[in-house]
């Protein structure tokens, strides 16, 4: 079966590859329709690794996906042939200690599409556990359904932040994840979210949403803006979504006493933090690694109409043009947010 294969760093091929398609009793087989190009996919393509996850063998890319069920296992009761679905790409061991305490996303035995050594879903058909496959409401398009996966990261961040109604938030980094974190924070109860970046075009896209305030930190001090607007108190929550070590510089100035830093972006190099400054303000730190138990919440929020992710899809490509899509993503055009591949 044809798939988009990362042969090694910076070498992609659209070629046939043997992938398991046997449908177990608790599985479904899905004909793919839409797959989003994620920043992690692009990072594996350009760098061959993300932190401890290293591409050592050819790997199929893709994990933001939606499609149609074409076969169901004997024990599957929640789905049927013809159902439109999206898929949570991580498959944990539900008997593991991590799963039993609700943290299956950090289960050491978890497999996750397009995370070495596990193949992704940029191929016409996949087999997936029905328990991690979600039927789409009629009003949710395939394009929106393929956005559930990245939006779930934002929902996980909002849950970890323990947002209180009226909180003021800050998101550093106006990429796709940063914008979705900001939207999830607003849905979670934040009254206003400042979002930072160095690229005006990205900030302009984020600023189209009500109650998201863009701040170009190349031109303006984030601390000056936030402290002025909060009468010197600071933001209740800061979500770091850029992965840049520079984002941590002066971050303690922005957070109020007793506030919280939620780390989402995975830094490409170690980050130096002066913990005495955190301690002096009793700033709490939470971290996010993907998500757990929120995928259906993310889908429900999209279906409710309270969040519109359609404007974030800025380009579509056919499966045959998958390599072109990745070359475009590598170029990092400032007006691009989410590129999607259609089958």
Tally of individual helices: 11
The percent range for helix content is 25-40%
> Oligomeric state of the chains?
single chain
Tell me the name of the CATH homologous superfamily of the largest domain. Medium-chain alcohol dehydrogenases, catalytic domain
Which structural class fits the helix and strand makeup? alpha/beta
- Separation of the first and last Cα atoms: 14 Å
Family: Belongs to the zinc-containing alcohol dehydrogenase family.
InterPro entries: ADH-like_C, ADH-like_N, ADH_Zn_CS, ER, GroES-like_sf, NAD(P)-bd_dom_sf, SDH-like
Protein name: Alcohol dehydrogenase GroES domain protein
Domain Enoyl reductase (ER): 8-335
Keywords:
343 residues; alpha/beta; Quinone Oxidoreductase, Chain A, domain 1; Rossmann fold; 11 helices; zinc ion binding; NAD(P)-bd_dom_sf; zinc; GroES-like_sf
Structure characterization notes:
The protein is 26% helix and 29% strand. The protein has helices spanning 39-47, 97-100, 142-145, 148-161, 176-188, 200-206, 222-229, 251-254, 275-280, 295-304, 322-331, and strands spanning 2-8, 11-16, 27-36, 49-50, 53-54, 59-60, 64-72, 84-87, 90-91, 111-112, 125-129, 133-135, 168-172, 192-197, 212-216, 235-240, 255-263, 284-287, 313-318, 338-342. It is globular, with a radius of gyration of 20 Å. The mean pLDDT is 97.
Question: How would you concisely characterize the structure shown here?
Answer:
GO terms for molecular function: oxidoreductase activity, acting on the CH-OH group of donors, NAD or NADP as acceptor; zinc ion binding. The protein is α/β, with parallel strands linked by helices.
């Amino acid at each position: 079966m044809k798939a988009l294969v990362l042969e090694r760093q910076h070498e992609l091929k659209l070629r046939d590859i043997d992938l398991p398609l046997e449908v177990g009793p608790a599985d479904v087989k899905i004909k793919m329709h839409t797959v989003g190009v994620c920043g992690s996919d692009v990072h594996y393509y350009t760098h061959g690794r993300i932190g401890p996850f290293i591409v050592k063998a050819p790997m199929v890319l893709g994990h933001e996906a939606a499609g149609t069920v074409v076969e169901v296992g004997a024990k599957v009761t929640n789905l049927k042939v013809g159902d439109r679905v999206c898929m949570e790409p991580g498959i944990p061991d539900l008997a593991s200690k991590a799963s039993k305490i609700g943290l299956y996303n950090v289960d050491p035995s978890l497999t996750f599409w397009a995370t070495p050594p596990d193949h992704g879903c940029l191929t016409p058909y996949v087999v997936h556990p029905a328990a991690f496959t979600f039927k789409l409401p009629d009003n949710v398009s395939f394009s929106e359904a393929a956005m559930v996966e990245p939006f779930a990261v934002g929902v996980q961040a909002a849950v970890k932040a323990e947002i209180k109604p009226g909180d003021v938030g800050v998101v550093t980094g106006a990429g796709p994840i940063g914008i979705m974190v900001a939207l999830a924070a607003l849905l979670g109860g934040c009254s206003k979210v400042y979002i930072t970046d160095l690229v005006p075009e990205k900030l302009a896209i984020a600023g189209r949403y009500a109650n998201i305030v863009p701040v170009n930190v190349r031109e303006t001090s984030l601390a000056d803006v936030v402290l002025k607007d909060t009468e010197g108190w600071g933001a209740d929550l800061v979500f770091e979504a850029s992965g840049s070590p520079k984002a941590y510089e002066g971050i303690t100035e922005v957070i109020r006493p007793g506030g919280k830093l939620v780390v989402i972006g995975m830094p490409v190099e170690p980050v130096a933090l002066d913990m005495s400054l955190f301690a002096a303000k009793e700033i709490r730190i939470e971290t996010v690694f993907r998500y757990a138990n929120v995928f259906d919440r993310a889908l429900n929020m999209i279906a409710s109409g309270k969040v519109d992710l359609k404007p974030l899809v800025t380009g579509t490509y056919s499966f045959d043009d998958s390599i072109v899509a990745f070359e475009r993503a590598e170029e990092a055009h400032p007006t691009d947010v989410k590129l999607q591949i259609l089958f």
